[in-house]
Write the structure tokens for this entry.
Amino acid sequence: MLVPVTRAKFEQLVPLIATGPQYKYYWGKFSDFLQRLLISVVAVAIVVLLKGVLRLNLGPVVFMFGLIGGFYWMWGPIFQASLRNAKYRRYKYGGFFRGRVLDLWITEELIGKQETVDSKGDLVIVENREKRINIEVGDETGFTAELQAPLRVTYKAIARGQTAEMLVMSNTPDLSRINEISDIYIPSRDIWVSDYPCVRHDFFVEVSRRIPNPERRLRRRRDAEDWD
């Protein structure tokens, strides 16, 4: 099932400014923080060199450059996430998709390489690999989509046949061609499968509850019969 969403709702689901989970995603590891901190130190050092050592009166523009650069370690993740959100928001149309988990499997992906030297002085290339979950979803129309994400313990609760929901993005008004998909939501387990948290989860769940779900009505009916 694919239900178009209004542009206002689409922009609400995919925010312009980074959310907390998106900020956390781009905060990265400690090495990423050190890299941003180094950029901040260099920016401040340039301003100090121009103003203090060379005694150049460069005015408020350079002061602002130093101020912004000095706090790059803090606002850098906001900038990166906002750029990524802007990429999603360039699509003209969005739709709410509800289907099922068709298949899922685990793979091991190469995420980087490191060069080191062993005890004999020989150059050794160490491959950094990460286990990832691959999930395929689809509906009765024949539409299918795949998403890959880092493996988490909570994903053990996902099984074939479970309801899967996501936001789809397109440049065609009838959504006949899907260009991008968001993270996938498994409502029966309240699990999000994602590498990057594209949508506002709270808003997405609200949209999901407003769209009729035959399974949810059937479950409520069975619960009522059990009470009887």
